Amino acid sequence: MSNFDVLFIGSGQGAWNAAMPLSMSGQKVAIIERDKIAGVCTNYGCNPKIILDGPIKVMEDAQAYKGIGMTSEMKINWSELMAHKNKVLDALPVMLEENFKKAGIEVIKGEASFVNEKTVAVNGQEYTADKIVIASGQRPTPLDIPGKEYLKTSNEFLYLEDLPDHIVFVGAGYVSMELASIAVKVGATVHVIQSSDHILNEFHQPYAQKLLTKMQQDGIQFHFNEKLSKVEQQEEQLQITTEKGLTLTTQLVINATGRVPNVENLNLEAAGVEYNSKGIIVDEYLQTTQKGIYASGDILDKKQPRLTPTAVFEAKYLAASFLGAQTQAIEYPPIATIAFTVPRIAQIGVTIEEAEATGLTIKPIDLGKQWDFAGRNETEAHLNLVYNQEQKLVGATAYSQEALEIINSLTPIITLGLTSKEVDKLIYAFPSFETMIPRYLQETK
């Protein structure tokens, strides 16, 4: 039986960002991983998605210049793009595992299962630790319907060697909208089955409606208030049927109806760790209901967005806590979120809906009429800023191809609580969105 100071279950961002500094500080550390090293983000999420999305954004940016200077048509070779993505990302788990070992971290391959509050079994071997961190993440929600064996998830989509001509996405959240945006631009016929009457619940709905209109113009066909009831094999194709009787014949069905926590095989009951359908329950120190067992990343039952930066923040917090450098409860800063659709929607801090409910000041800015956005012919770009009673910026929501840069440029202002006078001391490279920030902050609604 091997004993460690800290044992991590999972090797994603919520684990290794704590494991590395702990090991380098002299702690005896191990990481247990049942799948690819580095977790979902690196292998089945953010990283592969953003590489595949890269040329999609280039195409959309170029399309905006059609009729005002751009004449050539762009096409994507999916197999070449996929090969490029694989070449870049396949090396990352190997590199990260080597870095783990160089830092003195023991890597244990296999499925972890608690024996008791101090012991975890993997492949029949038991490991004990003074502290255990559960960072086992989430996985796509399974659909229990006839023909469920024919359903694929975003995991498989991000590794398709060839893109089918016809794809049906089930769900209209982050994953579905991002992948649908990619697929239609590559040339596939895309349908979306959605149980409600709208898309992207997490975002400002007027912006989501603008995006919906744009996606429909791009050729994506939406079927709202429909629930998938079965999938049948018909020769070399699939036929999907909804509860209301809608039928579609397709080549690929992607189940993107949400994600569920990876808790089933951990035998958490043996360790006295409580959890629910949303994840593992922790206190303000990220400790579970069992002393000495902690959790971080997407596995948590939390109100904060389940994003890579959030998991990194939690991992760094745990490392600092274990090393005695942090004694306070975790305090989350404003967390920026973005849907990598075409265009993007991004937000941080107080949302428009929260501002409306609490009477905070909302300042709309028609970015499409600003000279730089007009110069790129991005006429639909828009931004909403939220101010508190002291007239400090506390929230922002953007709709634009450049929403990522817009929200990231506003993040330090919101997080640090900078006043317009303090922001006015910053000199940015010109031309850029940042150079307009002081003016936006000085103007009132």
TrEMBL record:
PANTHER family attached to this UniProt entry: GLUTATHIONE REDUCTASE (NADPH) (PTHR43014:SF5), MERCURIC REDUCTASE (PTHR43014)
Top-level taxon of the source organism: Bacteria
Protein name: Glutathione-disulfide reductase
Cofactor(s) required, per the database record: FAD
Stated family: Belongs to the class-I pyridine nucleotide-disulfide oxidoreductase family.
Classification lineage: Bacteria, Bacillati, Bacillota, Bacilli, Bacillales
Binding positions (NAD(+)): G171, A172, G173, Y174, V175, S176, M177, E178, G258
Chain residues that bind FAD: D298
Cofactor note: Binds 1 FAD per subunit.
All residue ranges annotated as the Pyridine nucleotide-disulphide oxidoreductase dimerisation domain in the record: 335-436
Disulfide bonds: C41-C46
EC number: 1.8.1.7
Gene Ontology molecular function: any one: nucleotide binding
Alphabetized UniProt keyword annotations: FAD, Flavoprotein, NAD, Nucleotide-binding, Oxidoreductase
A Pfam family assignment: Pyr_redox_dim
Domain FAD/NAD(P)-binding: start-end pairs: 4-315
